[in-house]
Amino acid sequence: MKKLILMAVMALATVSSFAQQAVGTFTIQPKVGLNLANLTSSEGDIRAGVAAGVEFEYQVSDIFSLSAGALYSMQGCKNTIEGVDVTTKLDYVNVPILANVYVVKGLAVKLGLQPGFNVTHKMSAKQGSASGSVDIPGVKSVDFSIPVGLSYEFNNFVIDGRYNFGVTKVADGADSKNSVFQFTLGYKFAL
Question: Could you report the per-residue pLDDT of 48-86, keeping only the tens digit for each?
Fold first, then answer.
C-alpha cells in the first residue's frame, strides 16, 4: 500500500502545466519577423521580406490552446532573366487560425489553416539604373495555406518558426503556389 501511495505522489508531482499561461486566459502577442518566400513550379529564388502583426491566443487546457491573428506578409520570388533582375511581389494580410499543442513547458507544435488576402501583386524589373513595375494580372484576391510550426515561449517572449504550405494557385492560369518559411519574435500580454 505504501508503494502504491508513493507511486501516486510521484506521478502527481511529475504532472505539470506545459503552457506558460493559465487555463482560461486570453493573450495578445504583437510580433515581427522574417519571411523567406518562393513560388512552387517556378525557378525563382527566395524573396526575403517582413512578417508583422498580432495574434490572440486562448489557453483551453494545460497542453492545448487556440490562436488567431492578422499578419502582413511579404511573399513572392526573385528571378534573373537575361541579365534583368525581376521581383514578383505578392504581399498578403494573412489570418492564421492555429491549434497549439504544448509538448513540454513553453514548446508548442502548431497546425492550422490560413486564409490570406492579397494587397500587392506587382512585378518589378531592374537592369542597371533602369527600373519599372507593372501589376500582375489574374492574381487571386484570396489565398489559402496550411501553417505548420513550432514556437518556444520564455518570460512571455515567443520565438516562432513556421512553414506555410500553399494549397491554392496564386493566379489564374498558373500552377504556382506560395511557399513561405516564417520566423518571428513576439511578446505575450495577458488580457
Answer: 999 999 999 999 999 999 999 999 999 999 998 888 999
Residues 6+ apart with CB under 8 A from 7: none
- Please give the tally of structural domains in the chain: 1
The domain containing residue 53 runs over which residues?
18-72+97-114+140-183
Residue 8 inside a domain? The answer is: no
Any bridge partners for residue 86, and if so which?
A: 79, 125
Residue 98: partners with Cβ closer than 8 Å, 6 or more residues away? 66, 67, 68, 110, 111, 112, 147
Q: Is residue 127 part of a domain?
A: no
- Burial pattern 65-92, b for ≥16 Cβ within 10 A else e, equals bebebebbbbbbbbbeeeeeebbbbbbb
C-alpha cell at 2: 505504501
- Intra-chain end-to-end CA distance of the chain, in Å: 46
Residue 32: strand pairing partners: 52, 185
pLDDT along the chain (191 residues), means of 10: 53 51 94 97 90 97 96 96 92 98 96 98 92 94 98 97 97 94 97 91
CATH (domain of 151): 2.40.160.20
Residue type, 56: F
